[in-house]
Batch of 3 targets.
Target 1
Amino acid sequence: MTSNLLVALIFIVFGVIIGGLLNLVAKAISFTEPRTAFFSPCHDCSRSWQFKYLIPVIGYILSGRHCPYCQASLPVRIILVEIFTGLLFAFIYWRYGFTWELAMLVFYSSVFIVLLVTDIEQMLLPNIITYPAMIIALVIALLITLFNYVPSWAFVFPPTGFLGILNNYLFNSVLGGVTGFILLLVVALIFRGGMGGGDIKLAGLMGMVMGFPLILVALFLGIMGGGLIAAFLLIARLKGRKETIPFGPFLCLASIAALFWGKDLLIWYLRLI
Ligand SMILES: [Zn+2]
């Protein structure tokens, strides 16, 4: 028990450090101009930061929320991402222990966190993250299939009958990707303007990561969550009717939630109907 707690603490520290790195990656891919140093969360100057300012959480406090070189103010997002990633990684360890799920979920949630940040701040879901992540998701799906592994989030179909083919994880992953891509394409065509190509590709990536039918759960959660928050912001007059709210962050959070609880949610729903 004590050692479990110790490992969970190590995962918090590990997550906080990765969170700091994800902040730097998100900045590097969304701010290509002016050419800034990678080891600096500052958008406004090109100075590489001293190590002490780069230490997650502590560096943010030491810097007093301002770039130590050009005094530009730093977004609160930096420390929020660091703390969120730390807690998330500890949760993943607590839930799955030392399993393949731990490794896969640490990787996938890192991808979704970077996309969440770039979409909130720059309305961008860069291909430089989405495309390589899609390839890695397919390679992981291939390995899962070759080793006959069943990830905890995978929905298991009756092995006999035509649905049995869905238990092939690679096939399932491709089907999930195609389903996500097409469904969001249709949604984007119906609600013109609110959604872009980045969201459609993100839905394809989500499907490849979690497969079918989990992609349906994730899209449902993302669209419901996005719709409710957008309605709230409109009613509370925090956003105007003409302003667009990025949809990607909802898809990213829904993906993480679906990987954790999507299968249970789906089974619960199927029992209801
Ligand atoms: Zn600066």
Target 2
Amino acid sequence: MLQLKFRLSFHNTLKAHTQVRSFEIKKYPIIEVNNLKTWFPIKRGVLAGTVGYIRAVDITGLYINRGETLGLVGESGCGKTTFGRTLLGLEKPRTGEILFYGKNILELSRRELRELRKKMQIIFQDPLSSLNPRMNILDIVTEGLSEFGKIEGTREDHAKGLMNEVGLDDDAIYRYPHEFSGGQRQRINIARAIALRPDFIICDEPVSALDVSVQAQVINLLMDLRESYNLSYLFISHDLSVVSAISNRVAVMYLGRIVESGLTGNVIKNPMHPYTKALINAVPEPGLYSGEHKKEKIILKGEMPSPSAPPSGCMFHTRCPEVMEICSKQEPKETRSGMHQVCCHLY
Ligand SMILES: Nc1ncnc2c1ncn2[C@@H]1O[C@H](COP(=O)(O)OP(=O)(O)OP(=O)(O)O)[C@@H](O)[C@H]1O
Ligand SMILES: [Mg+2]
């Protein structure tokens, strides 16, 4: 069952700079992926070989411009985290290329990869489990600095500066993770992520575990930091409301593939793919996005198929309310209209 909620109250608490800027097509890509496939082998027993693959990610092309936020939405298990982990080098793709500032990171040496790690960071969903309970905040936020060396002034000064940037008091650096609220812990995670002054941050469901009022504060903080440091974000969430608040563009993922992408306003107000329409229609509260699509009520049938045995043709055909004969036979090609792309036989 889809768990998407569009919340007016949430959007009302966001700052004015939520008004997303328009970006031109692939103007200054900080990151770009081409034909990226991340598959996990399925093994039966210790001696048996690989009997199949979980095709977690299969992306033909996707890019994020410098200073841009790309929202990635889709149901649980569709491959969002695996995609983020692949970009960070935590999962090895089967094929494809990942260009960071135009350089394929899959061909970098270990030393070059280490340098790159400074520029790419990740913020996870669960703020508590991603912080070591035995380390105080000073050690947590300066851990990367110690590893990569080079800071001006003392570690304490640097950590206090980071606390101020994320809206926490100086003395927070002498405390431990369990002494903070969920929202404060996520601020600490953000402080750690920006400590090395990265250019690109993968935010993997960064506010999903937080209370709605706190969600808006954390989103506001991420937007402030984006402005201050011209950061680029890959913002992963199953909540279209949150994604639309912060993203310049949105990509919709189904079974590891991008089925639709475009400027946030276009995708939300004028969704083309039946899956995107269904995601938006699953929203109980009316009002926030009052595009034409609201007139038709689409309910998604059944569960998402297994990524180890994806359906033939269009992967969405088994659940699609607008399914046609061709859909089970032939994979749809991408159709492009300006900055709006969709993979569907309807177009
Ligand atoms: N290390 C792994 N080994 C095998 N399969 C994996 C591994 N990691 C993820 N998968 C599988 O890959 C698919 C995509 O998982 P992923 O965690 O990327 O989804 P997600 O979109 O992030 O879901 P959620 O919204 O629940 O976080 C799932 O079918 C999952 O079971
Ligand atoms: Mg995930």
Target 3
Amino acid sequence: MNLQQTLPDGVAAQIESPVVYSLYYDLTHAGGNADGILVLTGDAALLFEDGVLIKTVPIRDAEEFICEPGHGSGALLMRRGGEVSYLCGFTQGKLERFGKLAKMLTFTCETGRIPENDDPHDHICPKCGRPVTSRSGDCLYCAKKGKVFLRILKMGLPYKKKLIIGFGSAFAIELLLAMTPMIQRMLIDGYVIPQRAYLPGFLGVCALFAGAYVATLGLDIANEMCVHTLAIEVVTKLRVLVYDRIQALSMAQFLKRTAGEIITRMSKDIDAIQRFFHFYGRRFITHVFFIVLISVILFIQNWKIALLVVLPIPLMLFLAVATGKRMHLTREVAWSAWSKSSSVLTDALGGVRVVKTFGTEERETRRFANASDAWRVRITKAEVFWYKVIPALIYLLALGEVLVMFFGGKMVLGRELTVGELVQFSAYVTMLYGRLHWMIFLPRSLSEVAVSAGKVFELVDERIDVTDRKGAVNREITGAVTFDNVSFGYSEYKPILKNVSFTVRPGEMVGIVGRSGVGKSTLINLLMRLYDVTGGSIRIDGEDLRNLSQECYRGQLGIVLQETFLFEGSVLENLTYARPDAPFEEVVLAAKIANAHAFISKLPDGYHTRVGEKGYTLSGGERQRIAIARAILGNPRILILDEATSSLDTYTEKLIQDALGRLTEGRTTFAIAHRLSTLQNADRLLVFDQGRLVENGTHEELLRQKGVYYSLVMAQRQTSRMAPVQK
Ligand SMILES: Nc1ncnc2c1ncn2[C@@H]1O[C@H](COP(=O)(O)OP(=O)(O)OP(=O)(O)O)[C@@H](O)[C@H]1O
Ligand SMILES: [Mg+2]
């Protein structure tokens, strides 16, 4: 709860302690409308209605806070001394936030600490007081967009040769273009008006005119080639960098985003950066140069008309900057809508089997259509606003051209200006306004690039929360595992594992037992260091897990899960995923140990058969045996089996149990299984209940204790007619 919320002045003035959180509520106890705000200071909840403090509730002597849902509404309640009292009421839309608040408050009651708020939507910009919706914590109103563009341009710096040719040719083109109206003037005033055609001078000027165009064309081709390849090279490098960062994200950081969000970043956003390089960035610089150059020429030629020409420029720049700010926000909203529709797409594609089996294709199409429609509404809003402003700006520019023709024409008639000079002037004005016209569209284009680049850099800059420490050790482990007072919660205020301590000897096989949702897989996640513990430590061979190099450590882990993920590719590629250089004989041996060789040999191309996306061309049991062979080939010191055999028929399970029996020999093994009979080979069982390790012993010992394990076994015997569990 680490945020400062902007409070109405009247309310803020009444609070003495620092505010850590505040939330608006909108119902009275009787169900009427209320204009209420709940403000949390470090130790009390203050309730204000219509700006008046109506209640002060000390937090720490409470036992629990409860968010109770009702019909279309909810209430925040507090339990203290066995009594439940009402704090405030709110409509349905606020239910989720109050639910979270109740959990956070309960955490504070229990621990005395204020938990970290991990919801980005709860953050408020300290500068402007608006909610901060970006995950990076940067306020979209206050963030400096210039920095983003500079950073994109900097990515081009390593390509110096291309940059020099690209910009050099672009400037040369602008200079040549700036020369052409002068040549036109020479032609008109020197030869056309005096009717001195067909003289060598006339032909010479014509040739100069043509030469300037040909040179421009040549330079343009060189420029396009250079800038285009530069943009592609930068973007390819960026894509790989982003992908590398995605791979480095911790599991928690990964799960914060949907696949759609990540795909949008990798495709649409990086495309926008490419466009910036190819079009906007380069042209912006050369166009500004051109506008300044032409303005100077115009002022030298005739300052009075020049003044008329440049008059609309400041107003136009002001409007462009002002609209650009607004565009940025509407683009940001449109970006979120787009990534949501991409998420619907990736979700439905990933779950295509579920969609097909439930026959919900139409519903999925509707879901996608709705998400796309949400994007349409938002982007149309952004564009409509833009198109309301644009015609006004363009007319403003057209007015300048009319003024030039009017006053210029008058000056020609008064012989203050030659026809050639007027033509030159008018050509410059057309060129100048052409560039300005392009500049008007710039905020619109740049707002898209700024949002996209912001999203990409947000990912690139994300601080990885599970990293190797400095001097992380690479070492072979024997597989001794100690959990020392380990606590962990995916959110700080919602602990899953509490003060868990146990030791496992190298080569020992332990079974992890407990009801669904008790935290068994979470324990394994911690052991694999997909997450870091929030309290205590995990030690491997006496060394804190956080001091080991992740790559080296994970190379010594073997994992077989209930759902095996195979990559698109051949059986062989999947088998050797952890050890791509494994000799073929070893692969076959591993497959034989895993009882997989027989079925692999029967596949159309044997080990070279392609398994299709996610291995869908193989059966569940076949995929699992490949996973076992893959683990065997890695020769792990610690083996993790999470429900590795739960969904198989007894014959296949027997095959896999045999394979696993061979795999677990001499390795520290952690096995999770709901079907307790599958843990019969375990040396010891660790039994969890409500996040705590409650029993630790052999099957017989635990049965004799008649505790949690005993009741689990009894329940299974009764409900599943399973064979008596014997060791
Ligand atoms: N990534 C996550 N983010 C937030 N909460 C999670 C996450 N993964 C699991 N949980 C929650 O943590 C608790 C423990 O989950 P876990 O997967 O460890 O249970 P389990 O003991 O393995 O259950 P099962 O036997 O059903 O596999 C559950 O309440 C679950 O909802
Ligand atoms: Mg699990």
